[in-house]
Amino acid sequence: MRIGIVCEGPTDFLAIRYFIGQALNSRGFTGVEFVDLQPQLDATQSSAGWGNIERWLAQTTATLRVRRYFSGGLFDDDLDTKSCDLIVVQMDCDHLNDTSFVSFNAEKYGLANSIGQSAQGLYSFAVQVLERWCDLASLTQADVKRHIMIPAHLSTESWCIAAFKRNSDDPDLLTSSELVSEFMNMLHLSEGRAKPNVPINSIDKNVKRRESFCKRHASTCHPWVEHSTSFRKAVDKISSVIGQ
């Protein structure tokens, strides 16, 4: 089973590869391979962000995605490395109320959040946005099912926190500032370093550092990582499709 991943940046892809991969394996779905569609890890990296997802989906239209990644035979150069059985689209929810995001989706897609500001409301709105960006309306029902939307609340760093702490707390309940502090404290402890003695206001997105973290904690992350509500939903969605 090959699952193509479209996400904001490389640290999100690593959380998916190592933690969702381990969770699927623990549920009995072995041999799953994750294919980096967006971003491509061996390419020069631009800054991460939701615009990368929308831009990739707009350029790689629904029809083109089906022909290139699902059908095979039409784009020989891509077949060995990029063909896949499913496409999973992951986006963080921490920017859903940002003016730029709200304005962009209202102007280009006619979308506005009428669902609400609860965690579930924001999650549902993120799914709605991603489905519109994917242009699912132009696909057959069979190909719609091969596109899976998995928002993270507030970001995939919450999945990392759950994987590291291995307790029953749901890190999705943290505020944005609490998540940043918790993650950075945890990252230092994971590396055998003392917690920072000054407040940290941003998350370290260094790819090599993040991959070392994810590799280190992948084997022990399950079932604890599923205490993140958005992570559990992601694994449930993927499991329900590949288990058919």
Compile the SSE list and pairings.
Blueprint: E1 2-6, H1 10-26, E2 33-38, H2 50-59, H3 62-71, H4 76-82, E3 86-89, H5 99-109, H6 119-134, H7 141-144, E4 147-149, H8 157-165, H9 176-190, H10 207-218, H11 229-242
Parallel strand pairs: 1-2, 1-3, 3-4
Salient structural properties:
244 residues; four-stranded parallel sheet; alpha/beta; 7% strand
Description:
- With 244 residues, this protein is an alpha/beta fold.
- The chain has helices at 10-26, 50-59, 62-71, 76-82, 99-109, 119-134, 141-144, 157-165, 176-190, 207-218, 229-242, and strands spanning 2-6, 33-38, 86-89, 147-149.
- The protein is 51% helix and 7% strand.
- It has a 4-stranded parallel sheet with strand order 2-1-3-4, sandwiched between helices.
- Strand 1 (2-6), helix 1 and strand 2 (33-38) form a beta-alpha-beta unit.
Low-confidence stretches: none
Instruction: Count every helix, treating DSSP H or I runs of 4 or more residues as helices.
Output: 11
Briefly note the structural class of the backbone.
alpha/beta
Compute the number of strand runs: 4
Main β-sheet description: 4 strands, parallel
As a percent range, the share of helical residues equals: 40-55%
* Oligomer category: single chain
Q: What's the pLDDT, averaged over the residues?
A: 93
Percentage of residues in DSSP E strands: 5-15%
Bulk shape: globular
Determine Rg (CA atoms, Å).
Answer: 18 Å
How far do the termini sit from each other? 12 Å
- The ordered H/E elements are EHEHHHEHHHEHHHH
